[in-house]
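so my prof wants the structure for this chain in the tokens format not the other one, which i didnt know existed until like an hour ago. anyway here's the sequence
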Amino acid sequence: MKFVILFLYILSQIAVGIIGMKRTKNLNDFLLAGRNMGPWMSAFAYGTAYFSAVIFIGYAGKIGWNFGLSGLWIAVGNSFLGGYLAWKVLAKPTKEITQKLNVRTLPELLAARYNSPFYRIFSALIIFIFLVPYSASVYMGLSYLFESVFNIDYQLALIIMAGLTAFYLILGGYFAVSLSDFIQGIIMFVGSIIMIFSITSHPNVGGILTGIERLYKINPKLVSPIGPPGFWPLFFLVVLTSLGPWGLPQMVHKFYSIKDERSIKPATVITTVFSFVISFTAYFIGSMTRLFFNSIPLEGGKPNPDLMIPKIIQMAMPEAIAAIILALVISASMSTLSSLVLISSSAVSVDLIEGLGIKLKSKAKVFLMRVFCLIFIGISLIIAIFKPSIIITLMAISWGTVAGTFLSPYLFGLFCKDTTKLGAWAGSIAGLSISLGLSIIYKSDSAKIPMFGSLAMIVPLAVVPIVSKIERLFSSKPLAIHLPEIEETLSNE
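here's what i got, hopefully its the right format
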């Protein structure tokens, strides 16, 4: 049954790639699907890119084990701040300004907004360098599941997933990604509901209320509003995972391609519901891990967080249910991978190449995009094979660094026309320095990484306006950007 599900899934993705190839004729099609995506496909593309295998394989296990039910605050933050408010605040102005300026990527938008060509080159390098380990973390999380549930060799599983991602993305571009995300989103949504029911009905849990009672007996703090690690660790996890999407290029990209303003409202609702169901499922199941492993010593008396959920699936679910859950996690991973690969390859083949003044024809750009998709997948694959660190640390550092670099310049660029180029640069450098600097100083301490990433996003929110204000006060030159399209868009907000 498990192999039948896997085979059908692979066939569906091959079909998606072929369909997408027929719809992809130029660079605009490859990157943005012609800016013609409806609300359902846009919302599912956002939601499936948001939640990858890491949330089920790494985050759910570790956070649920440590925080208990208080980890559900992360689900609230993900759905409200990362889902609803992100679409409510960012979607319309981003759609308008990118269409008026005819920009296709976040580096291109920042370079145009701040009249700084080098910003595009800098942004492209940040994206390519730091999304590689993020992508590797997704591969690693998915392969852990393959190894546990399918008994397929870790490296073989990596190669299968990398090959499948390369096939449908390189053929069909963003349309294939969005169509695949829609299919995968349905699988994730249905699979999450089945997963909740399966886990809560298992004898180790005995239903939701009984499960909560059993957690209370293990440790009363596991069912309290704030789990054993305390308020601040939980707060930083909520900020990292919920505010992060506001500054991640692969998430912002979904706003560029939505068809029209009327599609934004339904997409907002769909994204919010989807985000809540997926994140609630992951963190609630994570909170139940103590009921399965608390009396079973694993790896020196403590379970490996990356393997807890795969082991629960293996030991607690019938084969048919396990196959559905497997499809859920594969879907979560493949959708995130394709978004990461698309954005990272565009950073080099579009932003870096054009930023350096190299002019290519449209067909040559599309070909280059496809080549760099392969390169990016290959590099991520190599990192995942060598497993330099646990997947949670890899993802958290990448997530916090990229979001910290871009969030403030992007946000103030949309809503504050007095933001200066120096202010934007100061914000990006501050976010990058905080995330990387603290990670190096504390030797990538996984317990502190969420705090570093959160600070990298929060501090630049003050740095950008303060530096812009100081520059305006002490500069005798006019600092406002006077591109008519930008001025018109900002004045309408």
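also thought this was worth mentioning. The CA atoms of residues 110 and 410 lie 7 Å apart.
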